[in-house]
Amino acid sequence: MRLNKLQIINEKYNFSFEIPDKYSAVSEEDYEDLNTDGSALYVFEAGEDLISLNYSGAASDFNSVIQENINSFKMIGVNLKEKIEEDNLCIIHLEFNPLKLVSIFVKVAKIIVVASIEVNEFNDNKENELKTIFKSFKPL
After folding, report:
1. CATH of region 5-139, choose from 3.40.1000.10, 3.10.180.10, 3.30.70.890, 3.40.50.720
2. pLDDT in tens, 7-34
3. Three-state DSSP string of 86-118
4. Residues 6+ apart with CB under 8 A from 28
5. Model-level pTM?
């Protein structure tokens, strides 16, 4: 089975990525109702699933942005289970019993984009789908 994907082009930051066509874009006017902190570049929904792709800083600050996020999570009692680095991606597995969270960071063009989701298990279908989306990020 082949999933159809939509290509999204961001001309402001000069990158593109693909997202499965089961997701629909949430209108920017609705971001505030979803409690985004103003850093949301895109929000997509598919049924109960929601993915918020957020601006997280300059690409040159990649490692420090990730470490700051890990430190912030630790300060509120969230445990870092694993940090995985792949090419221009960094995946962190976090646990706050009973919650399991995955944050994925990507360097693309001159910025960092991040998304965090709750998963049932690390490396489950939800995480793998998010990884596939993040691996599709390309500079224009």
Report:
1. 3.40.1000.10
2. 999 999 999 999 999 999 999 888 888 7
3. ECCEEEEEEEECCEEEEEEEEEECCEEEEEEEE
4. none
5. 0.92
